[in-house]
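ok, trying the design again with the full structure, not the truncated one.
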């Protein structure tokens, strides 16, 4: 048997990679089977394999399956993690890079889950995008207390996108939190995103663009405005 390089997430130190013909654990097979069903309809036909990790070498596959096991045990959604692995496979990225990105994705999701508690999968994925962009877990924790039934998917997606566009991290947090506490709806967040994005494209400093729009007060986006990305970090390459 060959030792796993860099260790395996979710296993004890010194664990070794089992022989390729050794049967996977019941939990692991269940995770992959369920994930494969979930992926049907959300991926191109080429990616809708019944065994989405079949193209990986045994060592890399084992590490990703172990990450999926750990996510399942922690109550973290596995679909975003598997989607990240498939993204890398479809782009023919190096297997070690895929494992590394998948491990990081699990870490972002786990951190977001610890900050927010049980939330909708898409909302948690957007929150993980905030952490990936550079937001702090304690800042995300401010959104743990909320009105029943309220989703912060749009707020998180725009927060992460602002950071990615160069808005200082703390300024992005302060602006999004202010609107959120004031009870802003999705249309208000989208209106802010449209206006700030337009100002940045005109050459205005990202931080100044956001501050200027916040001072103007909440606004709804104009009809026909471009919709902000649902999860900015998902478009990043696995390479």
């Amino acid at each position: 048997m060959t030792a796993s390089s860099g260790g395996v997430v979710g296993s004890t130190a010194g664990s070794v990679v089992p022989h390729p013909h050794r049967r996977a654990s019941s939990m692991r097979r269940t995770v992959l089977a369920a994930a494969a069903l979930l992926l049907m309809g959300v991926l191109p036909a080429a990616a809708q394999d019944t065994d989405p990790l079949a193209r990986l070498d045994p060592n890399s596959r084992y590490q990703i399956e172990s990450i999926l096991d750990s996510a399942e045990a922690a109550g973290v959604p596995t679909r975003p993690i598997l989607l990240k692995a498939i993204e890398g496979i479809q782009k023919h990225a190096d297997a070690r890079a895929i494992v590394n990105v998948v491990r990081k994705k699990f870490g972002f999701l786990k951190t977001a889950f610890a900050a927010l508690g049980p939330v909708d999968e898409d909302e948690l994925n957007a929150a993980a995008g905030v952490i990936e962009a550079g937001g702090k877990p304690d800042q995300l924790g401010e959104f743990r207390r909320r009105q029943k039934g309220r989703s912060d998917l749009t707020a998180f997606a725009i927060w992460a996108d602002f950071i990615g566009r160069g808005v200082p991290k703390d300024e992005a947090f302060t602006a999004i939190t202010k609107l959120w506490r004031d009870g802003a709806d999705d249309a208000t967040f989208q209106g802010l995103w449209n206006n700030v994005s337009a100002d940045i494209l005109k050459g205005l400093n990202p931080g100044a663009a956001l501050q200027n729009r916040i001072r103007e007060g909440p606004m709804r986006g104009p009809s026909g405005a471009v919709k902000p990305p649902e999860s900015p970090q998902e478009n990043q390459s696995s390479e």
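Keeping the full-length input from now on. DSSP finds ten helices and two strands in the chain.
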